[in-house]
Write a structure and sequence with these properties.
The radius of gyration is 20 Å and the shape is elongated. An eleven-stranded mixed sheet has the order 1-4-7-10-13-16-19-22-25-27-28. The chain has a nine-stranded parallel sheet with strand order 2-5-8-11-14-17-20-23-26, with no helix packed on it. It contains four helices and 28 strands. It is about 15% helix and about 25% strand. By secondary structure, it is α/β, with parallel strands linked by helices.
Length: about 260
């Protein structure tokens, strides 16, 4: 049975599962869907045209599904879609998409979004992502699964951070970060692989050793970068993580890449 506080404002066009909890002074706008087990604590706002996945918890003063921060937006129908089992802490802001983009901002499942985290319009965020306090994504950012974004870091609009990567606090990420990479600094530089993340995921010493060897061959080997990329693809074709890194690099060859020492 839904538990809706008497002070909450629920639009008639919102759809709430039977067991949803909406706390004091919350606002749920039109065309919002709150799926089973969702909890809105006090003063949370889900503005409009947003789907919140199962068992997601939204803390006080978060504004979810707000209008995109884009000068070209004129009120067109655009959406935000959030997966299951997320924790969205105080003062987070997740914006809907734009007609100029995909029209949809997408956030995966099992994420932790700490106080003040911001997800800009048309961004795509994977599963098991952690955004620490006040981490920020510009519009159209693409964040892979199991990424950790440190406090107060900012990913530039259209920026990509590949799955399994870690970005340090206060980093200005103006170049794409490879999958499993570790980037930090202002502006962010690539400092190696996310060894902590790899170990937590169960990678053994031999696996990590080969990944590090491939990383060195790609970023520190002889010859120009394009030649090294070809050699690494051939030499490490049996390592899916390295193939993911090379595919990530080739996917959008025109975008600047976060590199060591730059």
């Amino acid at each position: 049975m839904s538990r809706i506080h008497a002070s909450a404002i629920i639009d008639a066009a919102a759809r709430l599962a039977d067991d949803v909890e909406v706390g004091p002074w919350c606002v749920v706008g039109p065309n919002v869907e709150l799926r089973t087990g969702v909890r809105l604590l006090s003063h949370a706002i889900v503005q409009q045209d947003t789907t919140i996945g199962e068992r997601t918890v939204i803390h006080p003063f978060a504004v979810i599904g707000g209008d995109p921060q884009h000068n070209g937006y004129k009120g067109e129908p655009v959406r935000l879609e959030i997966g299951a089992d997320n924790v969205i802490r105080e003062h987070c802001s997740f914006n809907r998409g734009t007609p100029q983009g995909t029209g949809v901002t997408r956030v995966g499942s099992n994420g932790l979004f700490m106080t003040g985290a911001h997800i800009g319009h048309d961004s795509v965020v994977g599963d098991n992502v952690v955004m620490a306090n006040n981490a920020t994504l510009g519009g159209h950012a693409r964040i892979g699964d199991r990424v950790f974004l440190g406090g107060l870091c900012a990913v530039h609009q259209n920026g990509r951070v590949g799955q399994g990567a870690i970005v340090g606090g206060l980093a200005a990420v103006t170049r794409d970060v490879i999958p499993y990479g570790s980037a930090w600094g202002n502006h962010a530089r690539l400092h190696g692989l996310n060894l902590v993340g790899l170990k937590r995921k169960g990678y053994g010493k031999d696996q990590v050793r080969r990944l590090l060897a491939a990383f060195r061959d790609l970023f520190e080997g002889e010859g120009v970068f394009a030649e090294r990329l070809d050699r690494v693809e051939a030499a490490y074709a049996d390592l899916p993580e390295i193939m993911e890194i090379t595919a990530f690099i080739r996917e959008d060859g025109k975008r600047p890449l976060c590199l060591p020492g730059e």
